């Protein structure tokens, strides 16, 4: 009976059969709202410490420590994208046997990687903070936050792996439900630990890890209860070398790309740190505010990766190309709306995070200076996601590492050193994006699968 039900569930795949724009939106909105709640989840920590502890705590949670978390955890999230692409392709091709091998290999790989990532993050936290020239008054709280965060990194990595698997098979709703629950729980625990018990940065860190544990348990339970070919069964969790190779072939370039991207951001943070605590606090808060834009862009990128991956597995090249065009239009419409809102309401938004007027003034200038250039990145995000869905991962890595990361670092040392200031630092973004976007467009029209048949 269960077999018949599974066959029924996989008989009609709307991602490979349905109306593209409708299915993109159906898949996109749960990811968007999920990312929104993820951002609220992360931003709640910053808001609570900024308003109830002080700007030093705000800089500790949102400054250098945030960059370090993004560097180490971002690498693993990139590896998760390898599992997502492989599983989406097998799911689109209805290859039950290889899908199960890839799924269970991904889970055991996740368990092993969590030990390495957690240990590395715990040990390297303080040395990296000093290398980044983090202000002395910020380091103690930053070290405390990072030690607790990386002690519980197992839960973070499990959630990221399992949620990426669920999205790969077209289930973007249940990861959303989990984020809603844990987001509300995180806000509650932040208030209890920080406002009521006055635990400061320690309370914020404990609230974050506790909620990550809840999210990991819930998504794993969903995967174990799935009534389809992607069901997780603990007795089948083992390494399959062929599946691991396929996951790493796609995921490792994405992970390295994330590392290079975050190294560039770490380099920027070093230059920002030299401008003082006020600028560090404003820059860290900017990272929480502009994440509203990035969550829209990334939600479209995740959507197109899954769409292209499943249609690639089904051999539907025309549908792949059409989905990229539709996704690009929707992404730009959304990007202009979000960018306009952030610029228009920059001042009141910053006041949500801090009452320090100097920090607010610096931050508002950052938003109005930098946000208009963000639209350039939409091209990079959508085309990069589409190429990954088709298994073309090396070129996105090379273009992003060379175009975005290296150019940005070169700009910092060649131009910002002789023209110090936050404006010079921020100019590194549009300069690197324009060059990279042009290269992505050229490659897409020359090499995207099935594009040659269009002649």
UniProtKB/TrEMBL annotation:
<keyword id="KW-0812">Transmembrane</keyword>
<comment type="function">
    <text>Multidrug efflux pump.</text>
</comment>
<feature type="transmembrane region" description="Helical">
    <location>
        <begin position="394"/>
        <end position="414"/>
    </location>
</feature>
<feature type="transmembrane region" description="Helical">
    <location>
        <begin position="176"/>
        <end position="197"/>
    </location>
</feature>
<dbReference type="GO" id="GO:0006811">
    <property type="term" value="P:monoatomic ion transport"/>
</dbReference>
<dbReference type="GO" id="GO:0042910">
    <property type="term" value="F:xenobiotic transmembrane transporter activity"/>
</dbReference>
<keyword id="KW-1003">Cell membrane</keyword>
<feature type="transmembrane region" description="Helical">
    <location>
        <begin position="292"/>
        <end position="314"/>
    </location>
</feature>
<keyword id="KW-1133">Transmembrane helix</keyword>
<feature type="transmembrane region" description="Helical">
    <location>
        <begin position="144"/>
        <end position="169"/>
    </location>
</feature>
<dbReference type="GO" id="GO:0005886">
    <property type="term" value="C:plasma membrane"/>
</dbReference>
<feature type="transmembrane region" description="Helical">
    <location>
        <begin position="366"/>
        <end position="387"/>
    </location>
</feature>
<feature type="transmembrane region" description="Helical">
    <location>
        <begin position="244"/>
        <end position="272"/>
    </location>
</feature>
<protein>
    <recommendedName>
        <fullName>Probable multidrug resistance protein NorM</fullName>
    </recommendedName>
</protein>
<dbReference type="GO" id="GO:0015297">
    <property type="term" value="F:antiporter activity"/>
</dbReference>
<keyword id="KW-0813">Transport</keyword>
<feature type="transmembrane region" description="Helical">
    <location>
        <begin position="426"/>
        <end position="445"/>
    </location>
</feature>
<feature type="transmembrane region" description="Helical">
    <location>
        <begin position="68"/>
        <end position="91"/>
    </location>
</feature>
<feature type="transmembrane region" description="Helical">
    <location>
        <begin position="203"/>
        <end position="223"/>
    </location>
</feature>
<dbReference type="InterPro" id="IPR050222">
    <property type="entry name" value="MATE_MdtK"/>
</dbReference>
<dbReference type="Pfam" id="PF01554">
    <property type="entry name" value="MatE"/>
</dbReference>
<feature type="transmembrane region" description="Helical">
    <location>
        <begin position="20"/>
        <end position="41"/>
    </location>
</feature>
<feature type="transmembrane region" description="Helical">
    <location>
        <begin position="103"/>
        <end position="124"/>
    </location>
</feature>
<comment type="similarity">
    <text>Belongs to the multi antimicrobial extrusion (MATE) (TC 2.A.66.1) family.</text>
</comment>
<keyword id="KW-0406">Ion transport</keyword>
<feature type="transmembrane region" description="Helical">
    <location>
        <begin position="326"/>
        <end position="346"/>
    </location>
</feature>
<keyword id="KW-0472">Membrane</keyword>
<dbReference type="InterPro" id="IPR002528">
    <property type="entry name" value="MATE_fam"/>
</dbReference>
<dbReference type="InterPro" id="IPR048279">
    <property type="entry name" value="MdtK-like"/>
</dbReference>
<keyword id="KW-0050">Antiport</keyword>
């Amino acid at each position: 009976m269960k077999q018949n039900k599974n066959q029924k569930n996989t008989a009609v795949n709307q991602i490979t059969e349905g109306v593209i724009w409708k299915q993109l939106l159906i898949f996109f909105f749960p990811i968007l709202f999920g990312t929104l709640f993820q951002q609220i989840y992360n931003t709640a920590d910053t808001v609570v410490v900024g308003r109830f502890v002080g700007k030093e705590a705000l800089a500790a949670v949102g400054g250098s420590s945030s960059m370090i978390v993004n560097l180490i955890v971002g690498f693993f999230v990139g590896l998760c994208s390898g599992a997502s692409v492989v599983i989406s392709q097998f799911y689109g091709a209805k290859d039950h046997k290889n899908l199960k091998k890839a799924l269970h290999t991904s889970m055991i790989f996740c368990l092993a990687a969590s030990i390495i990532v957690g240990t590395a993050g715990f040990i390297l936290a303080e040395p990296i903070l000093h290398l980044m020239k983090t202000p002395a008054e910020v380091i103690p709280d930053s070290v405390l936050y990072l030690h607790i965060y990386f002690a519980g990194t197992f839960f973070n990595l499990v959630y990221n792996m399992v949620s990426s698997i669920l999205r790969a098979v077209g289930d973007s709703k249940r990861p959303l439900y989990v984020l809603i629950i844990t987001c509300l729980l995180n806000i509650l625990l932040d208030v209890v630990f920080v406002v009521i018990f006055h635990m400061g940065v320690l309370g914020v860190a404990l609230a974050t890890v506790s909620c990550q544990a809840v999210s990991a348990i819930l998504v794993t339970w969903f995967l174990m209860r799935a009534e389809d070919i992607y069901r997780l069964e603990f007795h089948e969790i083992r390494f399959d070398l062929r599946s691991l190779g396929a996951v790493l072939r796609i995921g490792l370039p994405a992970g390295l790309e994330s590392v290079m991207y975050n190294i560039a951001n770490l380099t920027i943070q070093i230059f920002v740190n030299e401008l003082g605590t006020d600028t560090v606090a404003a820059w860290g808060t900017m990272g929480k505010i502009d994440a509203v834009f990035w969550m829209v862009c990334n939600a479209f990128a995740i959507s197109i990766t899954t769409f292209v991956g499943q249609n690639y597995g089904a051999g539907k090249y025309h549908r792949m190309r059409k989905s990229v065009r539709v996704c690009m239009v929707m992404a730009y419409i959304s990007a202009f709306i979000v960018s306009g809102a952030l610029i228009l309401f920059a001042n009141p938004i910053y006041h949500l995070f801090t009452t320090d007027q100097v920090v607010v003034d610096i931050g508002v200038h950052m938003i109005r200076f930098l946000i208009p250039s963000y639209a350039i990145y939409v091209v990079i995000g959508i085309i990069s996601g589409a190429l990954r869905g088709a298994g073309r991962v090396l070129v996105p890595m090379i273009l992003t590492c060379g175009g975005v990361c290296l150019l940005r670092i070169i700009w910092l040392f060649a131009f910002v050193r002789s023209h110090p200031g936050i404006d010079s630092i921020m100019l590194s973004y549009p300069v690197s994006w324009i060059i990279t976007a042009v290269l992505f467009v050229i490659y897409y029209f020359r090499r995207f699968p099935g594009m040659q048949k269009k002649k």
